[in-house]
């Protein structure tokens, strides 16, 4: 292959370009009408009541932690197999991150490990949970909600990998990732390699009206222009006796941030959202081809069989000689990636006492994992080339 094959890639169409051009030629580049349009369309797609667009997925996590009141000394449980932002949002607020190991079959935060942590400490030790829909596989939030209710915890669902993903609840119903039926808040990312690309961008979803209004303030410096929420009097606002607030007035009521999304990013997201289902369908087709190619090879461990509700942001396999395969693929213009280095062994988190052997499942997974090319515009020819190179290398190794 003459062209490089990355592990993930955005797909920008002519419709996307025209939508962005229209906004660039309009009166609003930011804080305009396209933000709310994107939020409403995304909420409808996910099946939740409220959506708040922000500058990126990390900002989304930070605002979630702030809106839930995370503060110094609060302990929050999450997985070590995730991008660092899932944990860092707790630290931004002064809280303490506690890692629990993964299930080696699903690669998701192990609910039984979390239960052991909770039951081994006095009730009230922990404030919340941040489970992650890693690789696009939806975590069973119904099980986590039961734990959260028992131990008085909130849940932030990190669904960055899983727009369009779902799990099936105990009543046989599809529960979309981020729909707010079990988690208090959920977050998504619109980084170019994600399902919906805005360049950068993120979204927070919730069914809680109070949290929704907090988030709207926090993403814009803690400022509100909602007259019903004003604290100061109309006379103060106007600078003279008055029964009404002047049009210029606004109040900073909390210490927030500038975590806004622009209108041209929002309209790009809205345009991409229109073909989100087609993207999911194609990702599942690609996963099925990988499954068939690797299922009879004992030296490849992966998520065998196309999994119901999996959004397939990543397709991960485990091999013995991961470094050898990684280098071989790069030499053949295939740029696979590793997801992820366990967070608890990052130097920053090791400063808090985390060490090797604390998370044996996560650490063993990391030694072998490699993410293969997975994006809707991957051609059949390109995928066949990837599979042949992998099998050639592994068969020669074995």
UniProtKB/TrEMBL annotation:
SUPFAM superfamilies: PLP-dependent transferases (SSF53383)
Active site as annotated: 194
One BP annotation, GO: polysaccharide biosynthetic process
Enzyme class: transferase
N6-(pyridoxal phosphate)lysine PTM sites in chain numbering: 194
CDD domains: AHBA_syn
Alphabetical keyword list: Aminotransferase, Pyridoxal phosphate, Transferase
Molecular function via GO: pyridoxal phosphate binding; transaminase activity
Family to which this protein belongs: Belongs to the DegT/DnrJ/EryC1 family.
Name of the protein in question: UDP-4-amino-4, 6-dideoxy-N-acetyl-beta-L-altrosamine transaminase
């Amino acid at each position: 292959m003459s062209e490089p094959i990355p592990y993930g890639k955005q797909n920008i169409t002519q419709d996307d370009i025209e939508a962005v051009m229209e906004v660039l030629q309009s009166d609003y580049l930011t804080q305009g009408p396209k933000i709310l349009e994107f939020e409403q369309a995304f909420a409808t797609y996910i099946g939740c009541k409220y959506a708040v667009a922000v500058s990126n997925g990390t900002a989304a996590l930070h605002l979630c932690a702030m809106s839930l009141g995370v503060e110094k000394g609060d302990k929050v449980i999450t997985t070590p197999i995730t991008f660092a932002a899932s944990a860092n949002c707790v630290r931004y607020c002064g809280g303490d991150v506690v890692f629990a190991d993964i299930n080696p079959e699903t690669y998701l935060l192990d609910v039984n490990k979390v239960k052991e942590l909770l039951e081994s400490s006095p009730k009230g030790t922990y404030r919340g949970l941040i489970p992650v829909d890693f690789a696009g596989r939806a975590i069973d939030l119904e099980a986590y909600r039961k734990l959260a209710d028992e131990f008085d915890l909130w849940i932030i669902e990190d669904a960055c990998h899983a727009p369009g993903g779902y799990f099936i609840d105990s009543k046989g119903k599809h529960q979309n990732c981020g729909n707010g039926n079990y988690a208090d808040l959920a977050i998504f990312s619109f980084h170019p390699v994600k399902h919906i690309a805005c360049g950068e961008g993120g979204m927070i979803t919730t069914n809680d009206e109070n949290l929704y209004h907090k988030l709207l303030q926090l993403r814009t410096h803690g400022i509100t222009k909602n007259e019903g929420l004003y604290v100061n009097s109309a006379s103060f606002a106007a600078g003279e006796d008055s029964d009404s607030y002047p049009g210029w007035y606004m109040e900073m009521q909390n210490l927030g941030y500038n975590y806004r999304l622009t209108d041209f990013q929002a309209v790009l997201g809205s345009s991409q959202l229109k073909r989100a289902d087609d993207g999911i369908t194609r990702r599942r087709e690609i996963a099925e081809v990988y499954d068939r190619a690797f299922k009879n090879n004992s030296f490849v461990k992966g998520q065998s069989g196309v999994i119901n509700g999996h959004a397939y942001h990543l397709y991960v396999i485990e091999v013995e000689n991961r470094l050898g395969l990684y280098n071989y693929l790069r030499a053949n213009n295939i740029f696979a990636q590793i997801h992820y280095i366990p967070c608890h062994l990052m130097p920053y988190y090791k400063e808090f006492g985390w060490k090797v052997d604390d998370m044996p499942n996560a650490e063993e997974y990391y030694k072998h994992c490699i993410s293969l090319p997975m994006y809707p515009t991957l051609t059949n020819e390109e995928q066949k080339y990837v599979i042949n190179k992998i099998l050639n290398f592994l068969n020669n190794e074995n």
